[in-house]
Design a protein that fits this description.
This protein is of the alpha/beta class. Helix content is 72%, strand content 6%. The termini are far apart.
């Protein structure tokens, strides 16, 4: 076993001018003392000096660097092949030019890069959503056939939160939008002497589109974000891991009650939104167009087919399912910090509204093609 000897170096004067005699172990363990010694010798011999390395025991990369600093451009003599190979490798590494700092892209390149990254993220989110929907359907099918798995208390709680508590804002907003649509429609139609057609405008728009769409957007911003924040906070506090430790399925415990509550609540809210929007339009017609409520209801009953009502209602369960799925999925993506909860909540609202409008547009094209 070799005994460790602290590295040292002394200057030896000889007829050729002198050299530095290095001995001991030039390793990281004595790097601090060796660095001070090298600095002192370099001040005394600023042009460098040849090094006699016959007395050196062990050398590592830290010691090799110090020997190269001490030698400067002078040779290092007396090295065995192993030490020579190490010092040559360190010298080559020092001589290799460092990579120039990469300039951030700008202009068209930056635009294309951000567009590509956003497109990739959209595709990744869509793929995750499809997989999560499959998991939801699988869990839902397993629970439906086993009444012991039903969580009625949790369902009733979330039904109150997502449905009953959302009635005032949904009704108020749709009433005001109905009034605005009727007022703008009447303003344009008056120029053609067709103010009476404001009834059809309000009826068709709210039965087919506005009622379900406005209700879904409000629920996406109100309940979808709440789902993400609730599940995300549980994820950050490791409560979901605790649920798994107890042998329970987080999808069954946390997601299904929220999903079923929204599936029940959104169609009912859509019906109320349709009524509120039509009442708002009827109010404007009665106040501005001399169309009495009786005339409004009679004309709406005669001209608005019941199929328009079912077109709007048929989209409500689809919107509810997608909003609940996106809200819960984003909650499970939270990584553990408060910033992550906020980011995922924002992402949940944006994705829910985007998907809702996209599906509504596709449904409108589909119903138009089948002449409904």
């Amino acid at each position: 076993m070799t005994t460790a000897t602290a590295g040292t170096a002394t200057f030896r004067q000889d007829p050729s001018g002198g050299c530095v005699v290095a001995s001991g172990d030039w390793t990281l363990a004595g790097a601090a003392a060796l660095s001070a010694l090298v600095d002192r010798l370099k001040r005394q011999h600023p042009n460098g000096a040849c090094i006699d390395a016959h007395g050196i025991g062990r050398v590592d990369t830290a010691g090799a660097g110090l020997l190269l600093d001490l030698a400067g451009t002078s040779p290092i003599d007396g090295l065995d092949p192993t030490h020579r190979a190490l010092i040559d490798a360190v010298a080559r590494a020092r001589a290799r030019p460092g990579a120039a700092p990469r300039k951030p892209p700008y202009g068209l390149v930056a635009l294309l890069m951000h567009t590509g990254a956003a497109t990739e993220q959209v595709g990744r989110n869509a793929w995750h959503l499809v997989g999560f929907i499959g998991l939801l359907l699988n869990t839902l099918a397993r629970c439906v056939i086993d009444p012991r798995r039903w969580r009625i208390t949790s369902l009733a709680f979330h039904l109150e939160q997502t449905g009953l508590n959302a009635v005032p804002i949904v009704v108020l907003l749709n009433f005001l939008i109905g009034a605005v649509v009727a007022f703008l429609g009447a303003t344009v139609l008056q120029d053609f002497g067709a103010s009476i057609f404001t009834v059809e405008l309000v009826g068709y728009s709210f039965l087919r589109e506005f009622g379900v769409l406005l209700a879904a957007i409000l629920i996406a911003g109100r309940s979808g974000s709440a789902f993400t924040a609730q599940i995300g906070s549980m994820k950050a506090r490791e409560e979901i891991d605790a649920i798994r430790t107890l042998g329970l399925d987080p999808i069954e415990v946390l997601v299904l009650p929220r999903l079923l509550a929204l599936l029940i609540a959104l169609p009912l809210l859509t019906f109320l939104a349709m009524l509120a929007g039509i009442i708002g339009g009827a109010t404007v017609c009665a106040l501005s167009l001399d169309i009495s409520p009786t005339m409004f209801v009679t004309r709406l009953h005669e001209l608005a087919a019941v199929q328009h009502f079912w077109v709007g209602m048929s989209k409500a369960p689809i919107f509810a399912f997608l909003i609940a799925a996106i809200g819960c999925l984003e909650g499970f993506k939270v990584t553990g910090s408060a910033e992550s909860v906020g980011t995922r909540t924002t992402s949940s609202v944006v994705q829910s509204i985007f998907v809702t409008i996209l599906v509504d547009a596709l449904a409108a094209i589909f119903y138009m093609e089948i002449h409904v």
